[in-house]
Amino acid sequence: MKNIQVSIKKFLGNKNTVTIIGVIICIIILYVGYNYQISRVANLIDMPVANEDIQPRTQITSNLIKTVKVPSSLLEGEFYTAPKDIVGKYTNYNSVIPKGSLFYRTLLIDAENMPSAVYSDVPEGYTVINYPVDMYTTYANTMEPETYINIYFKAINDDNEVIFGKFIHNVKILAVKDSVGQNVFESSEETRIPNYIIFAVPENIHELFRKAQYIAEEYGIQFLLVPNTITLTEEDAVEVTSGDIRDYIMERTAMIDINEEVTDEQLWDKEAAEQKKEEQAQQNEQNANNENTENQNNEQQNNNQNNEQQNNNQNN
Predict the structure, then answer these.
(1) Sign of torsion, CA 303 304 308 309?
(2) How far apart are CA 284 and CA 54, in angstroms?
(3) Are 47 and 81 in contact (CB under 8 A)?
(4) Of 66, 80, 161, 225, which shows the fewest CB atoms inside 10 Å?
């Protein structure tokens, strides 16, 4: 026992040893005190964050969430604080949640409330067009939503000459879809090939565009989508820029007035007129048949008379 006490006295009597021990104690005190002060001031709380980059329209599962301590002073906005409130929800159609990000309420949505990004931005009075494209016609997949394009028109006129010009100006792209309907630019983790471009135009231009599509094969009509490099604003109108192209299409098509209301009396008159027309056609067919029969009889009678005349001449 005395030997142990002597050893301790000698150990503590060494100035270097005492100095080292003192430094270690000071470091421990500083470390504990610093963490205590930081925790007291920062008020660290446990928060759920994204465990990896989460793409749009992705259902949140528990493996996509982890918990970290975050200073309360850095928390701003509306966000979820409990993982159980996050699991089962979906990232919004236009939202990517980066790894380590909080789950803000504006970025998550219930499945039944998932909006369609394509149709939510269509102005009143506009009609949506789903136009087929490929990697080549989209300029190597550089036509993105929220950008603008011009549509050019190529056809063959009655003199077998090529006509070409700008057809529709200032068309905003709403979405670019692949062959299974996924947004081409929605995911940053996989390559998707463009198959359709979706855009909207005023109804009168939509009707003109559809007419051109329906006669495209007969008149060799082709459309060329070209990126619009001019800076545009929301006030810039979508417009047909060539009256000659409009006239070319209108001269080769017709439009049914779907807004015309038909009364019961008009409908009955129309049905009666159709029946009368059908009866008249049957009568005309019967008259034609009778006339043919009469002509055949006359022809047969003439033949008989000619034969009789020939027989008389031979007898004489």
Answers:
(1) negative
(2) 74
(3) yes
(4) 161
Q: How far is CA 303 from CA 271, 292, 295, in A?
A: 48, 16, 12
Residue 185: both structure tokens together: 């630019």
102 phi, psi to nearest 5 deg:
-70, 160
Give 140's strand partners. none
For 299, other C-beta atoms within 10 Å of its C-beta total 10
Using alpha carbons, select from 38, 189, 183 the residue that is nearest to residue 99: 189
The two structure tokens encoding residue 177: 């879809």
Given a contact cutoff of 8 angstroms between Cβ atoms, the answer to whether 65 and 49 are in contact is: yes
CB 170 within 8 A of CB 237: yes
User: Rounded to an integer, what is the distance from CA 33 to the centroid of its chain?
Assistant: 58
What CA–CA distances, in Å, run from 19 to 9, 10, 28, 33?
Answer: 15, 14, 14, 21
Domain ranges of the chain: 2-42, 44-113, 126-251
Contact 162, 190 (CB under 8 A): no
Instruction: Calculate helix-pair angle for 203-214, 243-251, nearest 10 degrees.
Output: 60
Amino acid identity at 72: S
> Model's pTM, two decimal places?
0.53
C-alpha dist (Å) from residue 217 to 106, 114, 134, 150: 48, 39, 19, 22
Q: Tokens for 310, please give them.
A: 């020939």
Q: Which two tokens stand for residue 244?
A: 């000659």
Query: In the structure encoding, which two tokens stand for residue 223, read together?
Result: 């459309």
Rg (alpha carbons) of the chain, rounded to whole number: 42
SS3 270: helix
CB atoms within 10 A of CB 173: 20
| Run means of pLDDT, 10 residues per run, the chain, 316 residues | 58 63 78 66 80 89 90 79 90 86 89 67 88 93 91 89 89 90 76 92 92 91 88 65 86 70 54 65 76 73 69 62
